[in-house]
Amino acid sequence: MKMSRLLTLIAVAVVAVAPASFASEGAAGTGSMSYMALGCVVGLGLAALGGGIGMGQAISGTLGAMARNPGFYSKLFPNFLIGMALIESLVIYTLVVVLILLYANPL
Fold first, then answer.
1. Chain mean pLDDT for the chain
2. What is the fold, at CATH topology level, of the domain defined by 31-107?
3. Is 37 exposed, middle or buried (0-12, 13-18, 19+ CB in 10 A)?
4. Residue extents of the structural domains in the chain
5. Which pTM does this prediction carry?
6. Residues 23-55: pLDDT tens digits?
7. What is the dihedral angle through the alpha carbons of 72, 74, 80, 85, rounded to the nearest 10 degrees?
């Protein structure tokens, strides 16, 4: 419960700060890039945090199921690996979007 409150507070803080980065006027490169970099770093950090939490829960559930029923290992482990690959791919997609935003920025 405390973790969900913390994540909600972080999300509200990010949403509250976001308009300030888009409201800046002036010449290109006078600080708006630093807000974009900050947003990209925070977004990537949150994606990695979510991926890490999801992987931890998946590992915990899989090991618990294997401990209760070792005969189920052959059916459980391939699905576990596919799930881990999908969770990790979400973080990699976030990294790709961050790199595109930072290096292909038309500012």
1. 81
2. F1FO ATP Synthase (1.20.20)
3. middle
4. 31-107
5. 0.63
6. 655 555 556 667 878 888 888 888 899 999 999
7. 180
| No. of helices (H) and no. of strands (E), the chain | 3, 0
Cα separation, 16 vs 11, whole angstroms:
9
Closest to 91 in 3D by CA, of 41, 48, 40, 52: 48
Helix axes 73-103, 32-68, angle to 10 degrees: 180
Six-digit token pair at 6? 């913390």
Torsion of CA 47, 43, 17, 100, to 10 degrees: -150
